[in-house]
Structures are given as structure tokens and as C-alpha cells.
Amino acid sequence: MSTIVEDALRRLRKGDDVNYNIFLEGSIFFVCEFDPYFSLVKHNPAEIERAVEENWNRVKEQARLAGREVFNGERVGVKNWNFEPSPQYRSERYTIDLSLPLVKSDYAHYKFGEQTRRFPGVYELGVVGATVSSDGGLVFGVREGTGTDDGKVSLIPAGGVELNYVDKEFTDKTHWKRRTVSSEDSRCGIRASLFEELKEETGISCDETSKISTVNFADNLYFNLAITYLIRTDLTSDQIRERYDGLEKREYEKGLTLVPLRIEDLARFVLEAEAIEAHSASVLDTLLSVPNLI
Question: S-S: 260 plus which of 47, 50, 121, 265, CB 3.0-4.6 Å?
């Protein structure tokens, strides 16, 4: 391993906001225990709900002042996440079964937990895409006005798994039963949420992707678990920039940066970036540590 790659890995591992960085081979298989009788929104004391509402009003006002809109959509949460035994930032190969008890949540409760640490037992389930152009460019952007990730370099796309993409057999008490399901199963809503974020943030549709594979599964201290996918597209770097520039709503004011998907180039990018979002750092760690992924 070259010195520049070692330096880049040291920088990525210096942060303390990622607990686990698990390199995955193939799908995640987890026990789907979506409890239709539990909702984070309905099971909190009145004073907590008032605090959530007050915080959400502040979030909306901050977004309004920044010229953006935020919506309180229903999200999928994970209750009592406790994966063991991986020390902080240990990147290894795993084929694992994860027991993820899922609960109904929403964006307002997630933002409250992120900012106050009041819901330590509930995480948001998210998706991250490491999107690669047909000529080998890995897509990054700098998020603005997003709270904890404001001003940080991030992989694109990224977002929460939305409840409306989860099949009713998991969420409706008249259909529900405990079952094991792969993260690739369309009924659990993970890939649908990924493709929706990809379309929304870049303009790229799922029909313009050629290969999708899991990269890692990581959690950070902001109550967020994320599955990351390597997304290879049929579009060149220039076509992706043009597609993004044509979007009516663009989330990245400084535009997109495409970095060659080569070990040395990624290492230089890591060392030159001002700040890197936690999940993106974990994915870069995996890409630099497991060269055969690239």
C-alpha cells in the first residue's frame, strides 16, 4: 500500500462519528420484524412530542431562510441496533444476517434525535449510492443547509428509506408476520428508495444503470444506519453533469465533482477535501482497503 493511501486511510479513520464499517459481499439478509402496532410518533410522552414539533418548526424556518423546502415524510426506523463485534472502523469482509426490528418514524423525529440524542435506541435506515460514470468517475457533491452534514463532501445519492416504498405485508397489521428477507427484495423498499434518491439528486433513472452491488453497511453517531451500493451507470461524466445541470431543483450549489475511480486519485481527493460526511468516509475507507472493488 502506497504512502498516500495510508495517509488517506489515517484521515478517514481519525473521525469518531462512525461506529462500524462492514464490507459486505452480496446482499444483506435480515429478519424483518416491522411491528405494525409500534410507532415512534405515537409512543412518546407529550412533552417529547412538543419538543419534536418545536424543533421541526426551527428546521423548516432554517430551510425557508436558505430558500429550500423540507417535508416531514414517513420514514423507516430501526429499533435497538446492536451489531457486535466489530471495533471502530474495522473494515472486513462479512456475509451476515442482521436482525433489524423496524418501526414507523418520520423526518421530524429523525431530525430531533440527530440534534438532541433523545432517541438513542432508534436509528433511521438509509441508503447511499457510490455512483460511477461509464468513463470511471465517482460522483460527489457538497451538501448545504443540511445540519450535521452542512458543507461536507458526500457521495451521491443518499437518503432515508421511505415508508411508502415498503410493501404493506410488512407494515399493515392485517398482513404482517415475522419473516427473513434480503435487502435486495423489492418488498422492503430499500432499492426503490435508492433509485428515487438517484433520480431526484442526479436526474439518472434506474434504466440508465448497468450494475448495482452492495459495498458496505455502516452506522454513525447521528442515529443513522446506511446500506451503500456501488452504482455503475451508462452515462459519461459529462452526461451526468449535463443531466444534473438540467434539474429544476439542484441540491448541490457547487455542482458535482467526479473523481476517477482509481486508488491513488481517491486517496488524493480524501487528503484535499475540507470535510467528508461520515458514511461517505466509511465507503471511501472500504474502497481504499478492498482494491478489487474498484
Answer: 265
